[in-house]
Automatic annotation (TrEMBL):
Coiled coil: none
SMART domains: AAA
Protein name per UniProt: ABC transporter ATP-binding protein
Molecular function as annotated in GO: ATP binding; ATP hydrolysis activity
All copies of domain AAA+ ATPase, residue ranges: 61-239
Species of origin: Patulibacter medicamentivorans
Membrane topology: Peripheral membrane protein
Listed Pfam families: AAA_21, AAA_23
GO terms classed as biological process: double-strand break repair; iron ion transport
InterPro entries cross-referenced by the UniProt entry: AAA+_ATPase, ATPase_AAA_core, P-loop_NTPase, Rad50/SbcC_AAA, Siderophore_ABC-ATPase
PANTHER family: IRON(3+)-HYDROXAMATE IMPORT ATP-BINDING PROTEIN FHUC
Entry keyword set: ATP-binding, Cell membrane, Ion transport, Iron, Iron transport, Membrane, Nucleotide-binding, Transport
Main location: membrane
Annotated localization: Cell membrane
Length: 271
């Protein structure tokens, strides 16, 4: 019998996942090195999901990895740090954007290590619901500079400020995103109707077929339905892999829709 270390077993499992998906990841693993002590991580050190990145780290699915959990569970902290570690602006945008309105992100991203795959991303973007306005403002500023060129062309040719919040999200995903890209999304459903979440889901699938990789923090049962994605729950125990049916947002939504009147009656009943 061949005895393998835990790391060797994880490498074998990762290879099986990649072969099953038929794609080579742009980023294989996110890891927090032992040298990054808690004193360097700021408030992120108290997040169990962050501490779960120590040791072997977190293996990303070569196509789509979802992070789910309650508010305050650390999923947005993680996706922001992954974006920063990938060279993306913490306030959103691509690796070419460097605007900063208020430094509020944890220093975690400065210490994470990304284990890259055999390919390099051709493009990238960090899309977060709370800062699309900032990205739109920066694009308009750059567009007004002499010799700026067609700055807005990759975003649909118009200022994102001329669109609704949801329309600006879809304009970025539909026009700016391209194949062989590494994309980090933080709760994109916050700006989108249910129908437009399905539109985004279809766009994600198109981009995955073109060699792109996604890491997404979400509460959306619609987005979580992407076939074959890896769903990771963030909670007080760290990180754990979940089946679609076991994701809290999915279970709660199903319970509500099965009997909304009874559900609401119980919720609003006097104690």
């Amino acid at each position: 019998m061949v005895h393998r270390s835990a790391r060797e077993r994880r490498e074998i499992l990762r290879g099986i996942r990649e072969r099953a998906s038929g794609s080579e990841p742009l980023v294989r693993t996110v890891r927090l090195p032992d040298g990054a002590g808690d004193d360097l991580l700021g408030y992120a050190a108290a997040v169990p999901a962050v501490q779960a990145l120590r040791g072997d780290g977190l293996d990303l699915h070569p196509e789509v990895t979802f992070l789910v959990g309650e508010n305050g569970s650390g999923k947005s902290t993680l996706v922001e740090a992954i974006a920063v570690a990938a060279g993306l602006n913490p306030e959103g945008g691509s690796s070419q954007m460097r605007m900063s309105t208020r430094v509020s992100h944890a220093p975690l991203g400065d210490h994470l290590q990304l284990v890259r795959g055999g390919r390099r991303p051709r493009t990238d973007f960090f899309l977060r619901a709370e800062s699309v306005f900032t990205v739109a403002t920066e694009l308009d500023r750059i567009a007004e500079e002499p010799y700026a060129g067609d700055v807005l062309g990759p975003y649909g040719g118009v200022s994102l400020h001329e669109l609704s919040h949801g329309e600006s999200f879809l304009a970025i995903a539909g026009n700016r995103f391209g194949g062989d890209g590494f994309y980090v999304l933080d709760e994109p459903e916050a700006a989108l109707s249910a129908q437009n979440q399905l539109t985004l889901l279809r766009r994600i699938h198109q981009l995955v077929r073109e060699g792109s990789q996604f890491v997404i923090a979400t509460h959306s049962p619609l987005l979580l339905a992407y076939p074959g994605a890896r769903i990771l729950g963030c909670d007080e125990d760290g990180l754990r892999e979940l089946a679609y049916d076991d994701a809290p947002a999915v279970a709660l939504t199903r319970s509500f829709l099965a009997a909304p009147e009874r559900f609401v009656d119980r919720l609003l009943a006097d104690d």
